[in-house]
Structure formats: structure tokens, C-alpha cells
Write a structure and sequence with these properties.
Bound molecules: zinc ion
Number of strands: 14
Catalytic activity: a sphingomyelin + H2O = phosphocholine + an N-acylsphing-4-enine + H(+)
EC number: 3.1.4.12
Organism: Popillia japonica
Number of helices: 20
Structural class: alpha/beta
Helix content: 25-40%
Strand content: 5-15%
Enzyme class: hydrolase
Keywords: Disulfide bond, Glycoprotein, Glycosidase, Hydrolase, Metal-binding, Secreted, Signal, Zinc
Distance between the termini: 41 Å
Length: about 625
Amino acid sequence: MNLIVFPILIYYIVTIQGNPIIIDTFEDDWDYNIPPEDKPLLLPNEIHHPLPAVGKLQSIKKPVIIDDNHINASNAELGDAVRRKISCSLCKLGVLLLKNEVNQGTPVQEIRGKFITICVDFKIENEVVCSGIFDVFAPDVLPVLNTTTIGVAQICSLCLGEVCGDVENPLHEWSVQFPVEKKPSLKEKLNYVGDAPTFKVLHLSDTHFDPNYEEGSPANCEEPLCCHPYSTPNSTETLEPAGKWGSYSKCDMPKILIEHMLRHIAEEHKDIDYIIWTGDLPPHDVWNQTRGGNLYILEESVKQMEEAFPNIPIFPSLGNHEGVPAGSFPPPWVTETDASTSWLYTELSKQWSKWLPSSVNNTIFHGAFYSVLLRPGFRLISLNMNYCMSVNWWLVVNSTDPAKQLQWLIHELQEAEDKGEKVHIIGHIPPGDSDCLKVWSENFYKIIDRYEQTITAQFYGHTHTDEFEVFYDAETYKRPTGIAYIGPSITTYENQNPGYRIYYVDGDHNKTTRDVLDHETWITDLGKANEPNSEPHWFKSYSAREAYGMETLKPEEWDNLIDAMAKDKDLFKLFYKYYYKESPVRPVCDDKCELQILCDLKSGRSHYRHHICRELEEIFAN
Ligand SMILES: [Zn+2]
Ligand SMILES: [Zn+2]
């Protein structure tokens, strides 16, 4: 297949707020054909961590699992903030108005006034937030609307996906190129040998550290993020004060909770071999963010991790909230220093260099992704999933394999296959999430299919819920080929308990599979922590083997679990309890919500639900 590069080599000069953004070409002459890092970063591993016995499904299905009396939110709250607030028609209206104004050369201040009026009149947000959104996002969005050659329906279909219809968009159809080497025939899968060494891996995700969190401030407010001294109390509700350790409402995490959790992990799990850290460090006040503020949070977060785990290797990946505005990650063809990501990637390479070899600076400077060898025959690849983020506005202009990341990934995977290495992939946004562009996700799905015998697990965050995505063969979508774990968030945003994840990975021995053998989720009950004179008590919520009766955690077992949940309400209720980390304020989940979640679990490919979820829909229709 050919990599279709846009034949648009136009010299654009777009002026916004007096600063020209120059896009001279979409060509990216970066050479992805670089030798993979080949010095193992971990010491030989000889410890065997005993796994719990496999649970019996019959016995775990019966007990009353939840106390429905405490559940007070509605399932209307499900879904991400963008889809909740912005419908397809509103997107089209907003984009149409903005595009017309920009194309007519209306002065920015005038566009600002009109935008704020629409934003407030449609009750999207209050005036402070609407003006903040314009000031933070306009320097990205307006040049993009001025530059793009695609229409309003195509822009909204690209950014919002399936909910906005499958609009034909030839400029956003592209395919990565695979090497000539044929996919090896499928070998019989090995199973873990009972007492062999295992790695214990900590997964932290979505900290959303809020330096402005203040105990006692309004936890229910009019802005999209509360618990600040300057939050506007909600005029129709009784004031709920922010708790000492966090709040279940629209709030992120106070420093005190993060530090408490890190101290607990360091004391409780002294035998962690390495840590994966899948991003989203800053809070959700996206209308208020600055580059300086986000860099401060990055620096502080790295310091917290270094202090808590001074001798443990840490492998980070980049979240969408690290960008300013949130989700903005201009590909390398945006070369103007002011508009490019160099402000972030330069600091990232400095901060991440505490754990990563200097040889990965090439890929980090270029696109904030890297590949490292953990042990001989075992590789970890960290992707920058913001290059598939549907509200990364730069991709509206050109979405073709940003930063050549997927082409580089194929190169790395082919080298790994040739050397007989197994690979774990980490990243922030799950590839099947509706926030991931359809065309990017489609290409990624084919890569997972091609290298299914090399990639033994993937790890993401972003959704804040405890879930997973099963990948299937790219032809029939029936045979499971891969598994992506979506680790629980540290933040409570929204209606969550804080939590973290431990994986046990097949270790160093001559029949190693490098499979994930079990995972545990640890949480704290925030309501109890916030009681007078109390503090968080961290405990193991569940282990996958025990809770779901899984012998191995291979993709086919996760696929079986989805099928079992579709037919067994009690089993789904158990999964749903863990999905929200046992939060007492989790929304009620009706049949529609249940189908949506089960369909998510089958969706390693985004915006393809009508195909992947057909059988599930039939089960729910009967
Ligand atoms: Zn997040
Ligand atoms: Zn995120």
C-alpha cells in the first residue's frame, strides 16, 4: 500500500493576533529508519511473584455486589465532556460561523465577541470559561479554519466521529506502508510456566494534579472544573465543600492525596520492577492553562515520582492535557517556534532523560515517542497518541501519519519480529477510543493485526475508567489478536475513587511469553478518607484472575469475558463496580449504557462500532 502524501505543497502564511504561522510544506524529511535502542534497561529478574488462585465465576456472581441506594448520578453523565456538551449540529454551526468570519478577515477581537455570545447563549459555559476557551484555543483553531480546504460537515465528522455521520473525506484517507516481509504463520501460543520469575509493574495514569485545589471551596460549581477558591458556586444547588483528600464532583487531585498514594505504593510494593506512567498530569481547567503552568506541573510531577521511587525505572508517555491548548500537538510540519511543540518536547526530553537513554532523544524531539529494550527479547514502545487525537486541530489541515509515527512503529516492530523480541506498547489515548481519529485508528489496527505475535500487550489511560479493548483480526473481526489495558485514573474526575494498577508480567526464562499474567487494582474509599480525623486507606480492590475466573489473560479470554457479561447481568454489575473503582456515586447503568460499555471493550478500532458491535446489539435487542 502506498503512503498517500497530500499533493498540497502550498506556502501558507496565516496571521493570527499578529503572529504569522508558516506552513511551507507537509513533507516531513525525518528519517524513521534508525537503529533500535539495544541496551537492556532492567536488571535480570529472578523473583517469582505468586499469583492468586483463579476465581470461580459461579461463586462470585451471587453475592449482592452493589448498594444501589448510594448511586445518585444519572447515566446521562456517561461519555466524554466534548460529546456531552457539543452535539454534531452545534459543532457545524460553530465551525461554520467561525470559518466564515476567519475567511472574511474579520478582526480577532470581533470574532472573540461573537464566539463568547454564542457560547454563553447556547449555555455551553459561563462567560469566564467561554472567553478563556477563546483566548487559549483561538491561536490554534482560527489558523486551522483559515487554512483547511475541507468543508464544515467534514471537519465535524473528523473531530466528533461517528456521531457526526460517516462523511466522505478523501483528503483524510491514507495508508501506512508495510515491509515486504510476509506475516509469519500463526504459532501455537505458549502458556506461562507456573513458578517462573515474573515482573511486577506499576501503572499510574491520569494524575490531573491541581495545584489550585482548596479544601472547603465549592465542589459543585458552574465551571467545568471546581474545587478552586475562585469557583462560582452553583446557583441552583446547595454548596458542597471540597474534601481534604479530593471530591467526587468535577474536581481534580490535591497534592496531599497524590503524595499520600505515592508514599503508600513505595511502602506497600517494595518489589516493583518498573513503572509505566501514561500521562495527563495537569488539571481539567483547559480554559485557564498556560505553557508555563503546564511545564510547572510536569516538573513537579517528575519530582514527586523521583522522590517516591528513586531506584525504579519509569517509562512515561504523553497525555493530551500536557498540550496548550489541551489536545494541541502540531505535527513537525508546523515549524514556527511559537506554534510548534518545541516548548514541550524540549522540556520532556530533559525530564524524561532521568529514566531514558540519550539515544531516544531523536524520536522524543521529533514526536515525543520512543522505543527501549527492557530485557533481551523484551521491548517497550511508548507512543504519542495525541497524533490521533480528534480535537488536535492541526490534524484537520493534514492528518497523514503525523510525525511519521506509525511508519516508525512498523519499522520498530519489524526489527523486533526479526530478532524474536516481544513488545509492550504504552500510550495515553486508547486507539479504539472515540477521541482517536478513525483513519489513524484503522491504520493502527492493521499494524496490531500484522504484528499480533510480537505485541503481547498494550497499556493506556485517558478514559479514567477501568476497562480494556480487545483487538480482532482485521479481516473478519472475529479472532482475538490483541489486548489493550486501560488503567484506572488517579484522579476522581468524575465520580471515581482514586486508584492505581499492578501488572504481573511473564519474566526472564527460556519459555517466557511476556504476557500479562494477572492484574490488581488498588483504590481508596474517598468518602471514608474525608471523614473527620481520617486519612486514605489504600486496599486491593480486585485481581482479574480472582474476580473474573481467568486462567490466563490472553486476548481470547477477555473476549470470552465480554460475551459472558452480555449474557449475565450480575457479572456485568461486578465489572461495572470496578469500572468506577467501587465509587458510591457512580452513575446508574441501564441497558443502553451496558451495551455502550461492552461495545467499547470490543472496539480496538475507533468509529467502527456499527461493524464490530453488531452481534452485541442483537443480543441486547432480544
Ligand atoms: Zn485524563
Ligand atoms: Zn486524556
